[in-house]
Write a structure and sequence with these properties.
Elements (H helix, E strand, L loop, with lengths): L7 E6 L1 H4 L9 H15 L4 E6 L7 H6 L4 H24 L5 E5 L8 E2 L2 H9 L3 E5 L9 H12 L3 E6 L4 E2 L11 E2 L1 E3 H7 L6 H9 L4 E5 L5 H7 L5 E4 L2
Parallel strand pairs: 1-2, 1-6, 2-5, 3-4, 3-5, 6-10, 9-11
Antiparallel strand pairs: 7-8, 10-11
Length: about 240
């Protein structure tokens, strides 16, 4: 059996994926499928940390564009990520996997506070760690939170799981002539203004030489494939 090419990973999950075909909220079938895929790579001996977005519940930036105070909107979005993190935790633990949710905003009755050394210790003890509430600060996306946490825990890669199978020249849903990139440098992403991650997240990854792999989560088995081969999705790195 092939061995994983990474020892410790940060899995960035799109909140929108959790809604499945419902168009909003959380589809339990999708959450279960996602948990099964995460358990698969955990069973390979990989140390797994996760960051979940909140697009299925609330988008702070969109709310601020409609008149809500930006800081207030972002904090609401952070609370929504705590909801999604608890949903993912429940799905994983129903499969017999030990997990811990560490939140940048303290919610003592539901989560542990985020402490870097504690997070690393949980990973070393073979627990799946779920980082909630972004960075704990407004004006930062969950992509930036994923980059920051991945660097802090010494992850080998960010696996960015989305609804498309990689990074394209333009939106492949709207444009049939969109072309997929197999490989990109950090600078190319910034220069082309490709909307794969925000500029702050990409810059953090570039400064710390942390590769990012963008792939399709809706295709079953893709998380496992991302652990066993580089021939999947789009890889963003310095080389």
């Amino acid at each position: 059996m092939k061995k994983p090419i990474y020892k410790r990973v940060l899995l960035k999950l799109s909140g929108e994926v959790l809604q499945g075909s419902l168009g909003y909220g959380i589809d339990p079938k999708v959450t279960h499928s996602m948990a099964v895929q995460i358990k698969e790579i955990h069973d390979l001996g990989v140390e797994v940390a996760c960051v979940v977005g909140a697009g299925n519940i609330f988008r702070g930036l969109q709310a601020s564009e409609q008149g809500m105070d930006r800081s207030t909107a972002d904090y609401i979005g952070m609370l929504a990520t705590i909801i999604n993190s608890m949903v993912l935790q429940d799905a994983l633990e129903k499969l017999g996997t030990q997990t811990r949710v560490l939140s940048a905003i303290e919610v003592r009755e539901l989560t542990e506070p985020y402490i870097r050394r504690r997070a690393i210790r949980h990973l070393e003890k073979n627990r799946i760690v779920i980082f909630a509430a972004g960075t704990g600060n407004p004006y930062f996306t969950t992509d930036t939170a994923a980059a920051l946490r991945a660097i802090e825990i010494g992850a080998d890669v960010i696996l960015k799981a989305t609804k498309v199978d990689g990074v394209y020249t333009k939106d492949p849903v709207k444009h049939r002539d969109a072309k997929k990139f197999n490989q990109l440098s950090y600078l190319e992403v910034l220069k082309r203004r490709l909307k794969v991650m925000d500029a702050t997240a990409i810059t953090l990854c570039m400064d710390n030489e942390l590769p990012v792999v963008v792939f399709d989560l809706t295709q079953k088995g893709n998380i496992r494939r991302a652990m066993l081969t580089r021939d999947i999705g789009t890889r963003i790195s310095s080389d």
